[in-house]
Amino acid sequence: MSSAGAGSLLAIAATGCRRDESLAPTPRAVDREAVPLRVLLCGTERWAEMLRTAWGSISDQSLAIRVLDPDPITAGNWQTAVVEAIAVCDVGIVPNGALAALDEAGAITVPGDDILTDEELGLSRFHPVLRDGAMRFAGRPVGLPLGAIQPAIFLSESAIRDGMSMPSTWDEYLETARQLAASTSSDSVVVEPLAGGAASSVFLWRANTVDPPQWLFDRETFAPVIDTEAYVETLELMRRCAAFYGSTHFTAGEVWSRLASGEAKMAIGWPAIDAMSGQRIEELSGMAIGRLPVVDVQSGSAMVGSPVVRRTLVDASSPIAVLSSGCRQSAASKRLMIWLAGGEGTSLIRGEATGLTRLFSESGDRSSPIGDDLAARGAHTHYDSFLTDALQSAALRPSPQLLGYREYLSALDDGVTACLRGQGEPADTLAQVAAQWESLNQKYDIKKQSRAWRKAQGLRN
């Protein structure tokens, strides 16, 4: 963030504080002996370590960080853990999907529409998807988004030199995958994140391109529609693609690592940390980058630029900074939130955690050596420029912000994974997922869950 942008955001925070909590000109005016800011971080210890270091370089106020790593916590216990933890913190860095539970529990407070939406003071610089989708719940801004990954198709420049081009239909994707798989004995020349919880995210992103008539739940009854035709065809297509991936399923970080090393020549993926090989997101070069095709279910074809509206789906794991209802230092807490959104030193943190992305428009470069044909199809050579384009959409798809959202995604992930391993047909698999979702509807009270889903779509109740 530029110094001008940071100054504008600090001005925003000042407008929303109580009179007895006026903001000092810079974070360094806070006394080191002041009470530490209590921060809930839904992430890793490594992320917390880098957050303390980066914040300490610009502020004298210490952070007392409570780390809640999603991986070791079962889906059924996650909601309770987050709600209980944020109650004793000032600021929360939480997944987008958790907003429904936090709202239902009254655990977060809205910083104020004037703070978050005043275009003259800088927040209009957020990508539209972040400004209009990720930071809003029940039609109002509830925090500051810290990132939103989007899946892309990556194709190596070596494959392009061999005559291959960025797939614009799924048939083209399958044919390119067949050619690449036949050219080597490697199991990871073509890959897609299907392990570590990524299968459910990929499935939803793929289903989003189909533009189903109803998204996840029936509009009237709130019955799951995850087993209807559009979703069954999505899973069938995933299974056809997975036939070229080999027997090993990789996490998002492992896919990214294989792209960075050149081992993978084509992949669906996004920047992520490979926990097995390092602690930072690796640099990527020598790749053309394009968006997933749009699928036309009626004709059975997939094409970029088809009449189907391309909607943008924000992943439920996307991080957002929120103000706890138990906050005891509102001015300092807002200062931290604003800094997290792109202040000095935060670029160092972005490489340490999956999901932290650029929030503001940057000038992208499409002109490098991917060729006129690929550039015409919207291909990029840098993920940040690809993401800038992907987050410009005004058409949004509701994120799965549900009470117990991780339980819904866990049931979907288990079903998709089993199907891709040959343990069931797509229709039967999704019928079982729908039954599990219906049970979860009852567990969380269908009226409360239906209300949360309406709020996820921008309605207040």
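Second entry:
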Amino acid sequence: MKTVRIPLPKPGGGFYPINDTNIDHYSLYADVDNVLIKRKQTGADIVANGGSTPQTLTYVHNLGYIPFFAAFSDAHVDGRWGILNNGYGSFTVPENITGADLTNLYITNFEAQDVQTAYDLFYDDMSNTGNPLITELKGSRLFKFARPGKTALSLNPNDYIIHSQLNNFKILKQGTSLAKNIVAGGIFTPTLIAHNGNITTPVKAFIFLKFPDGKTTLLGSVGATYSMDHTKGSVTCKITTTNIEIYSFNGSDMTCDVAWVIYGSGVDDNTLITNPIIDVPMPGYNAKTEKNPDHFAFHSRYPTLKYYYSNSYDLGTISNSTTITIAHNLGYVPFFIGFVNDFQSFINANTYAITPYYSADSYSGHTAHDIVANVFADSTNLYLDVYYQTNAVGTNKSFKFYYKIFKNNLGL
């Protein structure tokens, strides 16, 4: 069998041996169907003042399916970036929200000021739900490796493990902080964790937290993230160029594990041009002199997200807390992301938001009416969880989840 293996540098120097079978030790490991997630489009924009009339930016993708996407904002223009999950308050709308349907990605600003945002949207459909096509640059030299059973003549980006014309997801920094004391300080006393990433704005990162019940979830920047056993929470997260900031509204401190995966905008890095490397610059950039990792379609010094599985699950209309268990059996907590229909339907009835999704209907004299939709994982399963607080039980809502699992080990 013809294959390609490109090992990553080992901490402390050298490279992992070519006979190592841990795919997390490779930037490219094409022995099996280790598809590298390829970016379709990206952007960084200012969403205009939405204080009197909410302002929405619309990005057309036309993929025909709900893609892997992520949007981020610096909502208060203070250098604190957060992933945009949708969280609605009892009397207030969120600062910013995002959602995608089969055609578009939307970012909406409710703030009474201009807001900086950034987004990425990826090709990641392996089930031929959609049929995206790329136009290969004529006369260019391409480095591409087709998936098993696919042909290198295909123009469908999802038919490739790697394609040098497409900018793949590059992990600039990954790390963990185990047994971390998360301070119950609300918005005034965040728990700070130095992430040690050599990054600049816009800051793009996925921050995962393993609650004391042993279940891990992605932290959002708004609303409330509860533990799967619904005894701990709520937790939100922001990130700067130096620190992860975790805000806990839990009744007391708690011990949790935290993992982060930072990608996006790296600071120019002199180590990029040291040998040995394999790099494929984007059009217009010089492989010999370029130092910004985001200007490479592929760079062997950086780990990538390796696709494993995606699907959807329609719970239909339910009126009580419900958990669906889906086995992945990887033996570790993988990188994952979930999306759920936006039942507030602010943008339109067919948009899906990144989980955790929070809908508050509680206020003084009208307590415990909130509904939360979220996705959790452990070393064996993925869990699609809908949590109705006590007084919200009986409220009819429809839920459909999309979920995506990657082979990358979070180390939790």
